[in-house]
UniProtKB/TrEMBL annotation:
<dbReference type="InterPro" id="IPR039650">
    <property type="entry name" value="HdrA-like"/>
</dbReference>
<dbReference type="GO" id="GO:0051539">
    <property type="term" value="F:4 iron, 4 sulfur cluster binding"/>
</dbReference>
<keyword id="KW-0479">Metal-binding</keyword>
<protein>
    <submittedName>
        <fullName>Putative FAD-binding dehydrogenase</fullName>
    </submittedName>
</protein>
<dbReference type="GO" id="GO:0016491">
    <property type="term" value="F:oxidoreductase activity"/>
</dbReference>
<dbReference type="GO" id="GO:0046872">
    <property type="term" value="F:metal ion binding"/>
</dbReference>
<dbReference type="Pfam" id="PF12831">
    <property type="entry name" value="FAD_oxidored"/>
</dbReference>
<keyword id="KW-0411">Iron-sulfur</keyword>
<keyword id="KW-0560">Oxidoreductase</keyword>
<dbReference type="InterPro" id="IPR036188">
    <property type="entry name" value="FAD/NAD-bd_sf"/>
</dbReference>
<keyword id="KW-0004">4Fe-4S</keyword>
<keyword id="KW-0408">Iron</keyword>
Length: 438
């Protein structure tokens, strides 16, 4: 690819205490947490709403907020949990909460505005300026054009680690061969008769899929099927259909993925109409405007949280939260044996009630950059641990911690590495976070 030299003067939009890239589950948590500390916080969100995959992406369910004994995503996560339940979210198996996307958008809007957070939608981070191992400016582009924001502390909540990439941070990508989990284009469905539909845990979806495979309904015989969850009177959201060989850090790959995902959803409409009770008149109402990306860049931090930490239920002196979701690495292909390996790994990695692992503050600090934190699914982990921490409640936990840490650093005018960990843990405890140490 040929390079060109491009030089342009751009306006400085503002000087703030904290700049946040991305307003998904981690970003909204970080932004509200920091803004409530009375600091000047600006958040740039590239899409049209807060919430990311929960809203624009139509993911049907929040994974568990707790370990069956402790509410691990406490603080900001509990506020969201309570608000969604009040708005009509339905609890499945006493731990998975359905997501009414439009209502959640308004919940997040209200939380952001009430906190005093400054933010703009349709604003993407496109570059940065780094001086002496510190980020000086984030360069953004919006409907107003290209501009810069100066800040004392920066937080990358983009999911794909885009701000960190622009800052030159180290990162890992996928497994040892660079392969990542498949994506899913989640979807919204109408005209479901929930009174007649079998509950997901009682529906023999595997048998129905095999019948559909024999009838040549699907282009790809994908046995991994998460199904639908009720998100309205006659509405449901679905996490169905894998887009294999997806590279979420490549625009061409994502473009092909959207086209493939939309093609598959039409096949699922035929499947549900023909084979599944209560879905005879189900109609695909919308596909997500964001691809369901499970994995891309993992930004290298001062500590890499890893599978051994998961197995040992490890705790840390610099713990900023705890979580418990299973090791959930989706099959890399539609091969039946790949699905069987996934099932075995997923079910055998489950914790018992009350069990959890710790999340160290060091995994949120981008290595080699004094004032950059990372929150959400791109924090410093290995691939297996990333498949657990990537869920929305996990993002609430790390986002809240990043927001609190950034606020302390900004107030004390110190480096992120100089924060007294007891001060951070006490602040998180004060705002409701669950921080347990052995």
């Amino acid at each position: 690819m040929k390079n060109i030299h491009y030089n342009k003067n751009i306006p400085l939009r503002d000087k703030v205490d904290i700049f946040i890239a991305g307003g998904g589950s981690a970003g909204i948590s970080a932004g509200v947490t920091a803004a409530r500390e009375g600091l000047k916080v600006y958040l740039a969100e590239s899409h049209t709403c807060f919430g990311g995959m929960a809203t624009a992406g139509y993911v049907p369910l929040f994974m568990q907020f707790g370990d069956g004994v402790n509410f691990l995503a406490d603080g900001f996560g509990r506020e969201v949990y309570d608000a969604v339940k009040q708005a009509g979210g339905i609890l499945y198996k006493d731990k998975y909460l359905s997501i009414p996307a439009e209502k959640l958008k308004r919940i997040y809007d209200t939380m952001a505005v009430d906190s005093g957070l400054d933010f703009t939608f349709q604003t993407a981070v496109v570059d940065s300026v780094v001086e002496d191992k510190s980020v000086k400016y984030a360069v953004c582009h919006s409907k107003n054009g290209t501009f810069a924001v100066e800040a004392d502390v920066f937080i990358d909540c983009t999911g794909d680690g885009e701000l960190s990439l622009h800052c030159g941070a180290e990162y890992s990508f996928g497994d040892e061969n660079g392969n990542t989990m498949p994506g899913t284009l989640c979807s919204l469905w109408a005209n479901i008769d929930w009174n007649r539909a079998e509950p997901p845990d009682k529906l023999n979806i595997a048998e129905l899929l095999e019948k559909a495979f024999r009838d040549k309904i699907f282009t790809v015989e994908d046995r991994h099927h998460s199904g639908m969850a009720q998100t309205g009177k006659n509405l449901g959201s679905a996490n169905i259909g894998h887009v294999f060989d997806l590279n979420a850090a490549d625009a061409d790959s994502l473009t092909r993925g959207f086209i493939t995902g939309r093609k598959y959803l039409k096949e699922y409409e035929v499947f549900y109409n023909k084979y599944v009770k209560g879905y005879e008149n189900a109609e695909l109402a919308a596909s997500g405007s964001l691809m369901g990306v499970r994995e891309s860049r993992r930004i290298r931090g001062e500590y890499v949280l890893n599978i051994h930490d998961y197995i040992s239920r490890r705790s840390f002196d610099d713990q900023i939260g705890c979580y418990c979701y299973e090791i959930d690495i989706h099959p890399g292909s539609a091969a039946k044996e790949e699905f069987e390996k996934f099932q075995n790994r997923f079910h055998t990695s489950r914790y018992q009630p009350g069990e959890h692992y710790g999340i160290p503050y060091r995994s949120l600090r981008a290595k080699g950059l004094e004032n950059l934190l990372v929150a959400g699914r791109c924090i410093s982990t290995d691939q297996k641990m990333q498949s657990s921490i990537r869920t929305m409640p996990g993002c609430f936990i790390t986002g809240q911690a990043a927001g609190a840490a950034a606020a302390i650093a900004a107030k004390q005018n110190c480096r992120l590495s100089q924060i007294n960990i007891n001060d951070l843990q006490n602040k998180l405890t004060d705002i409701g976070a669950f921080i347990a140490k052995k």
